[in-house]
């Protein structure tokens, strides 16, 4: 992967992560990033989260499904830009069985 392609991919992933975080944080019921992390960690590690049951319900039963559904609904295969794959050729090192070209 080219350096510019890698940078673009990392930027796109950072924007996606920021969008996910903002979508979880915005709403009528205030939820902090620490609350979200505590609830998610409690589900992964099976330890009590330490947040109120109302906050846990908002994260897992209201915002979580809505955020995930919105992100899944927004992306379709038609929206993907695969023009960069048109330029992709074989890796120069493996041009043939004899090795790289001189």
Structure description:
The chain is mainly alpha-helical. The protein has one domain (3-75). It is built from four helices and no strands. The protein has helices at residues 3-25, 33-45, 53-74, 84-87. The longest helix is centred in the N-terminal third of the chain and has 23 residues, at 3-25. It is elongated.
Q: Summary?
A:
The protein is built from 4 helices and no strands.
Secondary-structure topology with pairs:
Elements lengths: L2 H23 L7 H13 L7 H22 L9 H4 L15
Which short descriptors sum up this protein?
102 residues, mainly alpha, 4 helices, 61% helix, elongated
How would you state the average pLDDT, rounded? 79
Count helical runs: 4
Sheet-strand content, in percent, reads under 5%
Low-confidence stretches: none
Q: In angstroms, what separates the terminal alpha carbons?
A: 22 Å
Please outline the major beta sheet: none
- Strand pairing plus helix content: what structural class? mainly alpha
How many domains make up the coordinates?
Answer: 1
Task: Report the count of strand segments.
Answer: 0
Q: Helix and strand string, N-terminal first?
A: HHHH
